Amino acid sequence: SRTEVCPVASMEYPERKLYATQFHPEVRHTEFGQTMLRNFLFNVCELTPDWTMDSIIEDSVAAIREEVGEDRVILGLSGGVDSSVVAALCAKAIGKQLTCVFVNHGFLRKGEPEEVEEVFTKQFDVDFIHVHAEERYLELLRGVTDPEEKRRIIGTQFWKEFFAVAEDLADDGRPVKFLAQGTIYPDIIESGARKTGGKASTIKSHHNLIPFPEGVHFDLIEPLDHFFKDEVRALGTALGLPDYIVHRQPFPGPGLAIRIIGEVTAEKLEILKNADLIVREELDAYNERLFAETGERNSEHSVWQYFAALPDIRTVGVMGDERTYARPVILRAVESSDAMTADWAKLPYDLLGRMSSRIVAEVPGVNRVFYDVTSKPPATIEFE
Ligand code: XMP
């Protein structure tokens, strides 16, 4: 078949079972795309869709038990989807042989550290260690304004905190043999592609990224390394993880520290967390309304990632009879499917207005709200 711009958009050679397309049947907007894929898999390749989430969980649990035996496993829990699903899976497989280390850098969104702690102390029966590193991180970032420098400091400190706990654990006479990681299939592809300029053959090269201290070694287990993100989410739900973890938005490792432009201070963090909470409340509700209307998650206009950011400026305002000289907050809300490109979300004015009024009224220290109307490219989703 052909299109206006493509002389051969698809072709087939049924006798040899060869089929090719010059477009993306897997993309949501491709008409009959799913049907094409289904025909190819089930009619041409003669596969049967006979796996279930339960059988996948059983297989993964058995594989983890087999590999780990009686040994102990340590896992860095970030609060994100991937590490949480690995933790839930390992909890099911080996229970208290798993120690989850949650390094709290203080830059998660409001309420999230408490949620992580709640889930992995009350719901799952694992060893859970909450490392309160908030003060240390703030100290390390004092006076630092360069984005890359912030990222480097935060990343380096994570492993310091993590290995300090790992070494303590080793001292109690039951050494830890394994480190579990939430590596998912796209991570492997990406790191392979980065190292080799396109080939995914050196797929394990990302392992080198863990800066093991001198003399420290763990064998890695990566139970999600054959799953895509939506499968990881489905796995999480089947394992009983709450929706607020399973459907978490993408979130940068350095967290709110890179949504505070310039130096990070306790005062700015407090402002940002409170403003960000309002953005989430309003847009969560907006997405829920769209879901109720369309019956579809991620429908055409649902907002994919949304947050508040804090620029390094002050502006003049007036409240009551008083002149204020306070901080503006920037709202960011984008539609995207893979974060490679993104459109700024065309939110209704009344919704923007409500977020603005609420933030200025409810968050001390803020007197103005901006909405970012830039797409990616040329901007990025994050600010630093
Ligand atoms: P940008 O800002 O480059 O972001 O358009 C693309 C997507 O990646 C997320 N992001 C990160 N995720 N560590 C992460 O795990 C990071 O350092 C990081 N920086 C950006 C961002 O939230 C967006 O979804």
Fold topology:
Layout: E1 10-13, E2 18-21, H1 33-44, H2 53-68, E3 72-76, H3 81-94, E4 98-104, H4 112-123, E5 127-132, H5 134-141, H6 147-170, E6 176-180, H7 185-196, E7 219-221, H8 229-238, H9 243-246, H10 266-294, E8 305-309, E9 315-319, E10 322-335, E11 343-344, H11 349-362, E12 366-371
Parallel strand pairs: 3-4, 3-6, 4-5, 6-7, 10-12
Antiparallel strand pairs: 1-2, 8-10, 9-10, 10-11
Helix pairs in contact: 2-3, 3-8, 10-11
Xanthosine-5'-monophosphate binds at residues 250, 252-254, 305, 339, 376, 380-382.
Model description:
The protein contains eleven helices and twelve strands. Helix 2 packs across helix 3 and helix 10 packs antiparallel against helix 11. The protein has three domains: 35 residues, no CATH class; 193 residues, HUPs (Rossmann fold), CATH 3.40.50; 113 residues, 2-Layer Sandwich (GMP Synthetase, Chain A, domain 3), CATH 3.30.300. 40% of the residues lie in helices and 17% in strands. It starts with 9 loop residues before the first strand and ends in a 13-residue tail after the last strand. Xanthosine-5'-monophosphate (XMP) binds next to loops. The site of xanthosine-5'-monophosphate has 10 residues, from loops.
